[in-house]
Write a structure and sequence with these properties.
about 110 residues, 5 helices
Length: about 110
């Protein structure tokens, strides 16, 4: 569909061109917070855990931070890479070291049992 020039022209109107994005002052006030509740799959009393992920600042920068910190884990921890073996992986595979690196980059991550 992108080979059709009218469609390409329409899409270009909705995509930022270099230098057209939001001002640095505007994105510095952005904030993102995810909350998740997990319920243990077991017999007996119900057990729950809650996790929070919070970042204050530009979300474009957060994308770069997440990618860079994940890449550093993969570069530094050869045993982890060998154990995982590749494929489609989630950030959960990167372990506690990834959480620590993100916290050092001003990402607030917390968890608690409910």
């Amino acid at each position: 569909m992108l080979t059709l020039s009218p469609l390409r022209a329409l899409i270009k109107k909705f995509i930022y061109q270099p230098g057209q994005g939001p001002a640095a002052e505007a994105i510095s006030k952005d904030a993102l917070e995810y909350r998740a509740v997990a319920v243990a799959d077991q017999q007996g009393p119900e057990r729950k855990a809650m996790a929070t992920f919070r970042y204050e600042g530009g979300l474009y920068y957060l994308t770069g931070v997440l990618l860079a910190e994940a890449a550093m884990i993969l570069l530094e921890e050869k045993e982890l890479v060998e154990r995982l073996g590749g494929g489609v992986l989630t950030p959960a595979c990167l372990g506690q070291r990834f959480v620590e690196r993100l916290q050092n980059a001003n990402v607030q991550i917390s968890g608690k049992l409910l």
